[in-house]
Amino acid sequence: MNFAYSKKKKIFDDLTLTIEGGHIYGLLGKNGAGKTTLLKLMTGLLFPQSGITTAFGIDTKKRNVSVLEEIYFLPEEIWLPDVNVAGYLKMYANSYPRFSHEQFQCCLKEFEIDTTEKLKRMSLGQRKKVAISFALATQCKILIMDEPTNGLDIPSKGQFRKLSAELIGDDRCIILSTHQVRDLESLIDTVIILDDSHILMNNTIDQICKRIVFKTLGSLDNQPDVIYSEFTPRGYLAVTPNMDGSDSKVDLEILFNMTTQNANLMKQMFNH
Amino acid sequence: MFSIKRFFEQFKIIWMQNSQKVFLNIGILTLIIIFINFMIFNQFIDKFSFGLGGVIIAFMTYISSANVFSSLQQTSSGIHYFMTPATITEKYAAAWFYSSFFTIFVYSITVFLIYIFSISVGNLFTDFHLSLNLPNTELLWSGLLGILFYHSFFFLGATVFKKNPFLKTLLCIILFLMVLGVITKITMVWFIGGIEGMNSYQWNLEINDFSDFDKLSKSFDLETYENIAKMTLTSIPVIFWVIAYFKLKTRQI
Q1: For the whole model, what pTM was predicted?
Q2: Residue B164 and residue A43: Cα distance in Å, rounded?
Q3: How far is B170 from chain A (nearest CA, A)?
């Protein structure tokens, strides 16, 4: 599909992307790369100029109820009405056929939320926790979250990872758009990197690990295999091709910087 | 498929979002109307006119319809609105019903009860024995149609304008009425004076001269004109409501 806000600059040019169940996708991109726009296009909040975005085979532009019942979009800025938690449930829970009140209460308990307080009087982080709890409790097959950890305190980020990981099943997927890659590094199993109106990478963590190795090196001397490196006080964070099938932990920040700076090399390596 | 259950869910959402404001408005209106009614007691008028009540009901209906899509004014609330599982038709129908008949009903009951209360208390503590001068069915019916006619303007305005939909729609209505006035005047000058009249007629025409009306009725079948006017006035709200539906359907956030 193609999409542009104005005739001068295309946001997406002939973009093709397929999202499958059973994965937690991490959508990464620079500011203005079009992450939120892509999420809105996926959910039918924006319409592509040409091409189509479908969910379960139905054009999302139609805003079909059967699609809306299976997609939950949690935007970066949370809007909640001026009611308490019970009021919010009364307003919206019935709209989702598989909404689990038990799961909702369980999430709120995990996040330590006072359910009697009015939502508008809660802090940003508390409101985000309520919204995340609601999103998880809808049991939608596609859960889309834009910067979900923004505003969450340190323990809550861990709780969020735990709750999200528990949710995932073969027929469900989570798409997380984020700049806070460190917060979600352990959660994401597939990385989508968006840059310059194209998808530079759409690979699972396993596929990435099979092709490249992330290491810390004291020096870059006599290291001809290094394809990318960044200097840190602990030494050089370097990436080399994985020739011997060695195992390493993917550093999403390094992966992102490397991919955006060496787009052609990465395309060759990952067969795009 | 249109689902009654989802329609009522949407209606419930709108009501729960607005209920606090509605109760606040009712409180403020109660104080204002009671104050005005007790001023009337001091002026030795033997009947309460329901006219002010009608104006209040109309005004509150327009406010309600202009703000019924307030969720669309912000991206985050707009996302919430469009992502809630219900068809656009169900969302539209719930908004339409809430902003028209429901609002008219709520404020009519409110105004009526305040009037009854004012008269009862007034009669109890003074020597007057006032009665409520309720409008007849014909007047009520035409009042309802009049409210619905302008409701369509504000309802459309709610889907078109992102900020201050009430004021912007009001401005549009004023402009529309001015344009309509100019067209009417040109038409009348045309029928009374023909092309010559268009060239030479004094444009400060005032229709208080019966000979002008005679000319007008001779040159044009007034019944036809009345029918055209009726058809136009009936079709305008329908057209505006249909446009509002498509504006909502194609709205992107």
Answers
A1: 0.89
A2: 28
A3: 28
Nearest Cβ partner for A65 among B12, B77, B85: B85
Q: Which residue has the higher pLDDT, B33 or A100?
A: A100
Burial class of residue A105 in the structure, from the number of CB atoms within 10 Å of its CB (0-12 exposed, 13-18 middle, 19+ buried): middle
Other Cβ atoms less than 10 A from the Cβ of A25: the count is: 21
* Domain tally, chain A: 2
Instruction: Name the domain count of chain B.
Output: 1
State whether A234 and A188 are in the same domain: no
Do A211 and A144 share a domain, yes or no?
A: no
- From A36, which residue of chain B is nearest by alpha-carbon distance? B253
Chain A residues whose CB is inside 8 A of the B75 CB are 75, 77
Phi-psi label, residue B164: left if phi above 0, alpha if psi -120 to 50, beta otherwise: left
Whole-number pLDDT of residue B196: 60
Shared domain for A185 and A73, answered yes or no, is yes
Structural domain span for residue B25: 4-163
- Flag whether pLDDT at A3 surpasses 90: yes
- Residue A76: pLDDT band (50, 70, 90) is very high
Q: Write the ipTM.
A: 0.92
Instruction: Tell me, yes or no, whether B168 lies in a domain.
Output: no
pLDDT of residue A92: 97
